[in-house]
Write a structure and sequence with these properties.
Blueprint lengths: L3 E7 L3 H8 L5 H5 L3 E6 L10 E6 L8 E10 L3 E8 L5 E12 L3 E11 L3 H32 L13
Length: about 160
């Protein structure tokens, strides 16, 4: 799938926004409207190598599990996450958060998501509305992220280590 990009301006410093997002345990707070049942892949949820497994609540999605791991964490400019989803985890994903200064001490957060589906059935699913659905869900996630960081509102559950 061609890269899908969403962005938003948040009234918080780049460092504050970056620090929040570099902890993958915080991600369910703003994505739990479409990514659920989060499980950390290691005890340390911050920085390079931190990752999680989750279920994607998409219509007609029979193979809903996915995972994401931080491959690059460059403070305070960008976070790159790589992962897999779909049947037998055969669809590769690449997500990039970029943080740019905005007027008044605010931060422009841009999230770009790219998927790499090699099997025809996976490409058909993307073509039949998967891209538009993902764009809507990611736009909502960015609005929720802004509400959390600016006003402390709309927080979902934070993922913890199993048994914690």
């Amino acid at each position: 799938m061609d890269p899908l990009t969403v962005s938003i301006v948040i009234s918080a410093s780049r460092e504050r926004v970056f620090d929040y997002l570099q902890d993958i345990a915080n991600h369910p707070e703003f994505t739990d409207h479409y990514l659920v049942d989060w499980h950390l892949t290691r005890e340390d949820s911050v920085g390079r190598g931190a990752g999680a497994r989750f279920r994607v609540k998409a219509p007609g999605n029979r193979f809903s599990w996915g995972d994401s791991t931080f491959a690059e964490v460059l403070r305070p400019q960008r976070i790159v996450e790589v992962g897999r989803t779909g049947k037998a985890n055969r669809v590769r994903t690449l997500g990039v958060y970029e943080f740019d200064p905005a007027p008044g001490g605010a931060t422009r957060v841009q999230f770009t998501l790219e998927t790499e589906a090699h099997v025809l059935s996976d490409r058909i699913m993307e073509a039949l509305g998967g891209r538009a659905w993902l764009k809507r869900k990611n736009e909502k996630a960015m609005r929720r992220l802004r509400a959390i960081l600016e006003r402390g509102e709309g927080r979902g559950e934070r993922v913890t280590v199993a048994g914690g």
